[in-house]
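User: Could you write out the 3D structure of this protein bound to zinc ion? I've included everything you need below.
Assistant: Certainly. Input first, then the structure.
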Amino acid sequence: MTIPRHRRRADRHSRATQQQALGTCPGCGKRAYTSKATAKAAARRLYPGTRMRAYSCPGTPWWHLTSQDAAHTARMRDQQAARAERSRT
Ligand SMILES: [Zn+2]
């Protein structure tokens, strides 16, 4: 007795999807990934040609993707600098 080929392919596909994305984050509602590596792999597949940044969601073990926005990155750097300045004084 043989298993229909199309059935097996569907099973493999659903398993792969589960490894890529866990679902939505209970904390912020964004799509959640189980690791930085899976998040980045998903970014390459879902947003080819777009620079996406993987970051860990605070308070959860999940990872999210965000588009790499230069202004946002600069703002984050400024905030970190300001925090470092404050803790020094
Ligand atoms: Zn989250």
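The pocket of zinc ion is lined by residues 25, 27-28, 30, 57, 60, 62, 64 (CB under 6 Å).
User: Perfect, thank you.
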